[in-house]
Amino acid sequence: THRGGVGGGRTPHPRPTMREPTKPLSPRPSRGRCRLCGLCLGSALLAIVVSTLAHLLSPPPQPAPSPSFSVVIDGGSTGTRAHVFSLGPDGRPDLARSAVMRVSPGLSSFAADTARAGESLRPLLEFAKDKVGGEGAAAATEVRLMATAGLRLLEESVREAILVSCRNALRASGFRFEDSWAKVIPGSDEGVYAWVAANYAMGTLGGDPHKTIGIIELGGASAQLTFVSDEVLPLELSTNFTFGETTYTLYSNSFLNFGQNAAQDSYREMLKSRGSSKNGTLVDPCAPKGFSHKRKVLARTGGASRSNLENQYVDNGSGNYKECRSSSLMMMQEGKDSRKGSY
Ligand SMILES: *[C@@H]1O[C@H](CO)[C@@H](O)[C@H](O)[C@H]1NC(C)=O
Ligand SMILES: *[C@@H]1O[C@H](CO)[C@@H](O)[C@H](O)[C@H]1NC(C)=O
Ligand SMILES: *[C@@H]1O[C@H](CO)[C@@H](O)[C@H](O)[C@H]1NC(C)=O
After folding, report:
1. Model-wide pTM > 0.70
2. Is 221 annotated as a binding residue?
3. Which of 57, 178, 209, 341 could disulfide-link to 6, CB 3.0 to 4.6 Å?
């Protein structure tokens, strides 16, 4: 592991507090496929937990009729999910009645045609409208969009254009929406949300900071590392999170390009550059013998840096543990020398 400023592409921004005055802060990270991760929490759980916390932390609900639903759209690198939370009378989500729908590819795949990004939300919004009970109920329901590393990887102008397209779709959706509710959340916040979810699930949230667990979270495009720390931390890697009476000082960092899909892509690039591909077939020692897979690589960086030739690659596994281990270590070593950082 490694501490210190790695996370590529972080932009300085004021530390967020985890509390918004009245609105439930309902974030949502998104993971890619969960093949390799040791600790991989469902995004639904995460969103639910953070929504719950936001409610716990908000001022007690007063007479005003509280909305019965809350919709959070999670823009991940591999797909976009709509979480429809049904809120109980106490304002907390009623998990049994919450619903989720996912579409793929993710918002970042619209880099070359940003105006169409909003369109991709339409089936999700229709789904959500149906779940909340139609137009009338939608008008009383807030919808938020939180995007993660897929969009963080894009150039700012492209990222903004995608958000603009999404905001247009959300504004026209019939749900309650304000432009500031659609945004790309910083990687460090993503890590904090994952930490909250993990510790909530473990029953360690609310107790002794030193008995909480740290998390390594693998998303599709980025990885997050978050834990309670007593050390003096650089401000941009430090977050104070208050739950009940306890304030947790967290180290939270996000490593762009270190999500599992991004890591596998880098790994394949490395195999190819080392001559492991023959006649359109890439022999992968980390995949089991007999495994064969035609691989479609989606452009992650706006399409410019990846050729379509990659689409023609076939992965064949050779199931060679020693080779897998040494080539994986080699990749991490390469990472160390580059500006991307290290594992
Ligand atoms: C967190 O709280 C501590 C103690 O109150 C303070 O010294 C520190 O500056 C705070 N950090 C952030 C990021 O707000
Ligand atoms: C390479 O692939 C082509 C078509 O898949 C096949 O006709 C050819 O024999 C292969 N060459 C070698 C050296 O395997
Ligand atoms: C890859 O796997 C396929 C299907 O098992 C097999 O037909 C092909 O010969 C393999 N190619 C290489 C280069 O091992």
Report:
1. no
2. yes
3. 341
